[in-house]
Design a protein that fits this description.
Elements: H1 3-17, H2 20-27, H3 38-62, H4 84-108, H5 113-145
Helix pairs in contact: 1-3, 1-4, 2-3, 3-5, 4-5
């Protein structure tokens, strides 16, 4: 498989693995007891993304290419010890950007049927995650306005 397509898939892998949702799964944002159901939802989304990362890593490795797992952006360290409420809007915005990035990767990997199939699955799940995060953010906004 051409190096360019493997690199494209690896960029998506890094984008998912080193995104804000994955960081939120590691930094354990604070959530009040009344919103205790939010963190298990976030943890589920994190686990689903980790499965996507594993599948991409397996595909890249099967092709004989090395996998780069990247690093978190340094600005994420400012988000340690914040509330989930504080992060929700940023999580929604980042998920919108992730979906756009995956769709761009689908264009860039058009000549790679196997990679394209994986990216289509990732895009579908990214949209589902966006919907879930948007619902959490909307519910939080509704709660704070009452």
């Amino acid at each position: 498989m051409p190096e360019l397509q493997n690199a494209c898939l690896n960029e998506v892998l890094i984008r998912i693995l080193r995104g804000l949702l994955q960081y939120a799964g590691e930094c354990w944002p604070w959530s009040s007891a009344e919103h205790g159901e939010e963190y298990p939802t976030i943890a589920r989304l994190v686990a689903e993304q980790q499965e996507q990362v594993q599948e991409l890593a397996d595909l890249i490795t099967e092709r004989g290419a090395l996998v780069d797992f990247g690093t978190y952006p340094t600005e994420f360290t400012d988000l340690n010890y914040v509330s989930l409420d504080y992060l929700l809007d940023a999580l929604v915005q980042e998920q919108v950007q992730l979906l756009a990035d995956v769709r761009q990767a689908m264009t860039d990997c058009a000549g790679d049927p196997e990679g394209l199939e994986r990216l289509e699955q990732i895009a579908k799940q990214a949209q589902q995650h966006l919907d879930t995060l948007s619902e959490l953010a909307a519910a939080r906004t509704a709660d704070s306005s009452t």
